Amino acid sequence: MLKRMLWLILAVAAVGLAGCTAAARTPSPPETAPSPTLLPPTFTALPSPTFTPSPLPTTALPPSPQPSTIATPHPCVAARPAWAPPPHLTYNAALGGGVLQALNGGMPVSALNQVLQRAGIGNYPYAAVSVDLDGDGALDAVVSLADPHTQGKPPQGVLMVFLCRGRQFQQVATFMEPATTMAWGAPIIQFAQDLNADRRAELVVSAAHCNAQGVQCEERYAILGWRGDGLRDLLRDAEQPFPSPVPFVEDPDGDGVYDFIVETGDGQRLVWRYHQGVWVRQP
Prior knowledge:
By secondary structure, this protein is of the alpha+beta class.
């Protein structure tokens, strides 16, 4: 009887132990993982790429004209800013010696420009400019006068050129149209600078003519450079005049040699390039 009870107890204990072992081997149901928190993206700026220029070819190229490296030209006459012009400076007085007297009296060209324009006889945009025309290191003077009493549109006038000679100005050239109602207007100084890197300034000068109402205008141009003993027109192949033009000078490759460009009122863009001493129209 005792043995049966012991066997019964052992059997119950074995059954309980098997249940615990089975329970231990049965995997727990998987837990649901929490959803990840979405963060805004972070943008990191990348460094800009560094470009390394390719080496230039070693083939020898013909030298380009170099910009002028001459020192700033010196004034021809010592400036006397307090020099007073005649109280009533007229066109005829200026043309008859008043401008030369002012220059050799020490009036700065910039002051002369203002005096002439205030007197109503200086042309626009420049009545007087100071440049080295012949490359001798001294500043020369170019003056454009307009006669307010002429009937032309625009008024007729004169372009005067004064070179520095022995620390005094000397008038060497005068450009004037006949005083008629059909004449071209006073020469206009458009540009005054070294256009071909030869250490001499050139003058881009124009003259205009308009109809009686002053509305429809046409203009013609010259590039004046001092060559030898006088001014020469260096503009070639110019079928002039041009209707309502706008002139430019541009140095596209930075070599100190400028193109001359005219954009006309009828939509043309005309280009002249420097070649063998003159500016030649491009096809």
